[in-house]
Amino acid sequence: MIRVMGITQDHRVDAGISLEDIQNAKYLWSWIDFSEPTEEESCLLDTGFHFHPLAIEDCLHVLQRPKIDYYEEYEFLVLHALDPDTLATAEVNLFIGPNYLVSFHHRPITEIDAVWEGLQQRTQSRTSWTRGPFVAAYFIIDALVDQYFPCVYALEDELDELENRGSRESVELLMNQVFELRSRLLKLRRTIVPMRDMLYRILNSQHIQGEKEPRAHFADVYDHLLKLSEMIESDREMTADLRDSYISLNSNRMNGIMKTLTVITTVFMPLTLIAGIYGMNFVNMPELGWKYGYFAVLGGMLVLTVWMILAFLRRGWFK
């Protein structure tokens, strides 16, 4: 589906116009949105707008890393939208020209739909800086970045809950949950850090030079991405600390088990030796004919066991 919005010279919004209408001189700039385009509609990127083949290739072959490329007459942006439930990413491509904005995405993006509706109201408010395609691009980027916060906050809540119940569950289950959290944090990092770097390039480029108010709003989005990246790094460090703590706890438990088994084995070694000696079937064994030999051996084994246990207690082996 292709939908077109035109902003007139007197800052009124004409939604639902055709692609041919955007050439009308009454439109100051226009926004063309390709949502779930067909193959025929995708060809318009080349035949209708004559975008660079490399940019078109990036649109058609997902999933690209968030980035910005500068061409002679327009800028090409690759953005990522996040699903807060699954953390799955969806690519959003923007072509920003002097009097047009082209957005291209292979599935519906709720953030773009919200911007599409909201931009009409903002444009009609006649605010001076809302009169160009860079503004619509800012609204889209800001909406996408705002959706990152619930994803990060949800993982932080899971991390706090995991830390609080650490003493009530098995180490194996906790370790699996920690590694699952680290994997999801890595997914977020692969989106947020490139988006942060892309905003940094925008702020330090000459393409919005002199447009102070849009630059200030892009700087605000950049600050949000800085905060998100710092939160992710902090959460990754916390999961690393939890992982190390669980590994140490598991090692201590294993050491305690091994020490207990070692003590039991050490106690039974001399008893096994005695039982082995008197279990031999030699004919000439004087003790075998002794009336009280069986009870004497059992008593000796009992005394030896008590002595060894007391010796281990004095040396602190059971602490």
Automatic annotation (TrEMBL):
<comment type="similarity">
    <text>Belongs to the CorA metal ion transporter (MIT) (TC 1.A.35) family.</text>
</comment>
<dbReference type="InterPro" id="IPR004488">
    <property type="entry name" value="Mg/Co-transport_prot_CorA"/>
</dbReference>
<keyword id="KW-1003">Cell membrane</keyword>
<dbReference type="InterPro" id="IPR045863">
    <property type="entry name" value="CorA_TM1_TM2"/>
</dbReference>
<dbReference type="GO" id="GO:0015095">
    <property type="term" value="F:magnesium ion transmembrane transporter activity"/>
</dbReference>
<keyword id="KW-0813">Transport</keyword>
<keyword id="KW-0406">Ion transport</keyword>
<dbReference type="GO" id="GO:0015087">
    <property type="term" value="F:cobalt ion transmembrane transporter activity"/>
</dbReference>
<feature type="transmembrane region" description="Helical">
    <location>
        <begin position="292"/>
        <end position="313"/>
    </location>
</feature>
<dbReference type="InterPro" id="IPR045861">
    <property type="entry name" value="CorA_cytoplasmic_dom"/>
</dbReference>
<dbReference type="Pfam" id="PF01544">
    <property type="entry name" value="CorA"/>
</dbReference>
<dbReference type="GO" id="GO:0005886">
    <property type="term" value="C:plasma membrane"/>
</dbReference>
<dbReference type="GO" id="GO:0050897">
    <property type="term" value="F:cobalt ion binding"/>
</dbReference>
<comment type="function">
    <text>Mediates influx of magnesium ions.</text>
</comment>
<feature type="transmembrane region" description="Helical">
    <location>
        <begin position="261"/>
        <end position="280"/>
    </location>
</feature>
<keyword id="KW-0460">Magnesium</keyword>
<keyword id="KW-1133">Transmembrane helix</keyword>
<dbReference type="GO" id="GO:0000287">
    <property type="term" value="F:magnesium ion binding"/>
</dbReference>
<keyword id="KW-0812">Transmembrane</keyword>
<keyword id="KW-0472">Membrane</keyword>
<dbReference type="InterPro" id="IPR002523">
    <property type="entry name" value="MgTranspt_CorA/ZnTranspt_ZntB"/>
</dbReference>
<protein>
    <recommendedName>
        <fullName>Magnesium transport protein CorA</fullName>
    </recommendedName>
</protein>
